[in-house]
Specification:
Organism: Caballeronia udeis
Number of domains: 1
Distance between the termini: 51 Å
Strand content: over 45%
Radius of gyration: 21 Å
Number of helices: 2
Order of helices and strands: HHEEEEEEEEEEEE
Keywords: Signal
Protein name: Multidrug ABC transporter ATPase
């Protein structure tokens, strides 16, 4: 009996996850009547910090897109986990452009982003990648949201947390670079909001032909760190570290 109870308990998150996916169309109809959802790229998740609430991101393709480009409006929302009723949301027109650099995935980040004693944020990560073999490119961005009454307020916008680039001959010789940024919540700063601490690491790799082999060599990692402070409405992202997507 205990085994059966334990198995049932373990299945609860899976059931909740399946249920929230089934609400994509319902949420879109409520917030943007007549709009279709790209369910393959939509995301939802019960908020571990508050299981009574479910988080979701709905990419809504604009009409008139081509096979080479799709522009998405986006609804980010918090809903009642039991009833599906929308508690708060943010509508972001033309938030994503998927073209030569295509949208790969959208994921919810529910790390404990405690920005003030009263405000807990959640994150949305968007990943993009191109299809070029000789000039590969991929990146992932992070945005943070807090609930502000019936609205969601974006307090961090599209900070690039991972970026990989390359330029090679398609066989061996070439250069590659990978940059990753880890973000942590720091001490209280301006207005009582926590500072966001960013640790950056970049590794450059060179591939060269050595006889019949392809040799690779990593340069010494370059590291940097910086702090982002809340300015009363959002966290300012340093120039060059925010994706326009």
């Amino acid at each position: 009996m205990r085994t059966l109870v334990a198995l049932a308990f373990l299945c609860l998150p899976l059931l909740a996850h399946a249920d929230c996916k089934e609400r994509f169309t319902e949420w879109a109809h409520t917030l943007q009547p007549g709009r279709a959802v790209d369910a393959d790229n939509a995301a939802c998740k019960v908020w571990p910090a508050n299981p009574a609430q479910t988080l979701a991101v709905l990419p809504l393709p604009q009409k008139g897109g081509t096979t080479d480009e799709t522009v998405y409006d986006v609804e980010v929302l918090v809903a009642d986990s039991k009833t599906g009723a929308v508690i708060a949301h943010s509508y972001e027109p033309s938030a994503i452009t998927s073209d030569a650099i295509g949208l790969q995935s959208i994921a919810l980040d529910t790390a404990p982003w405690r920005l003030t004693p009263q405000e807990l944020a959640f994150g949305v990560r968007k990943s993009f990648q191109n299809s070029s073999r000789v000039n590969p490119f991929a990146d992932t961005t992070l945005s943070l949201y807090v609930i502000d009454e019936r609205k969601l307020r974006r307090v961090l916008s599209n900070l690039t947390t991972r970026q990989s680039t390359g330029d090679w001959d398609g066989n061996c010789a070439g250069q590659f670079s990978d940059t990753s940024r880890a973000i942590s919540v720091g001490p209280a700063g301006r207005g009582g909001y926590a500072m966001l601490l960013v640790s950056e690491k970049t590794v450059d790799t060179t591939h060269t032909v050595a006889g019949e082999q392809c040799a690779s060599k990593d340069k010494a990692a370059r590291r940097a760190s910086f702090t982002m402070e809340y300015d009363g409405s959002h966290y300012g992202v340093p120039s060059g570290l925010s994706d326009d997507q």
